[in-house]
Specification:
- With about 140 residues, this protein is mostly helical.
- It has one domain.
- The chain is about 65% helix and about 0% strand.
- Helix 3 packs antiparallel against helix 4 and helix 4 packs antiparallel against helix 5.
- The protein starts with a helix and ends in a 7-residue tail after the last helix.
Length: about 140
């Protein structure tokens, strides 16, 4: 693993573990991205899920819906949309794991929110998305 990947992973873990409610936090990150990227039905579903803990047991269905859209060959996603949908999938994974449903997704799903949002911001450099994501995340990783 390269040093920059290791730093990014450590930053993502630290960022997620500081959150009192990681699902709502990750939902706010997706919501910030949605202001630029749009709110197709799959994204609307994950944003609603993040705000309603009583719906978290349904998170795997939301994840499956996001994944199906990501894999559609008739309407392929752009590279930016692909990152956006992967970020939304992480919200569904966090909600699923937080609900206690089995089988769980990877325990470190939340740790990838920050690094993935950072990648999306880099892809969309020059847009207001970068600033909104930085605010939603709580800042960018320190440069060394």
């Amino acid at each position: 693993m390269s040093a920059s990947v290791s730093r990014s992973s450590a930053w993502g873990r630290s960022l997620c573990e500081r959150q009192p409610d990681p699902v709502e936090w990750a939902g706010r990150v997706v919501g910030a991205a949605a202001l630029t990227m749009g709110r197709p039905p799959e994204i609307e579903a994950v944003l609603a899920l993040a705000e309603q803990p009583d719906q978290w047991p349904q998170a795997r269905l939301v994840f499956d819906r996001l994944r199906r859209r990501s894999l559609e060959e008739d309407k392929p996603l752009t590279s930016e949309e692909e990152l956006f949908f992967r970020l939304a999938e992480l919200v569904a994974k966090l909600a699923h794991n937080s609900s206690g449903q089995r089988p769980p997704f990877d325990h470190d799903s939340g740790w990838r929110v920050g690094p993935l949002a950072y990648r999306l911001a880099v892809e969309m450099a020059g847009s207001s998305l970068c600033d909104r994501l930085a605010v939603a995340l709580g800042g960018w990783p320190d440069e060394e």
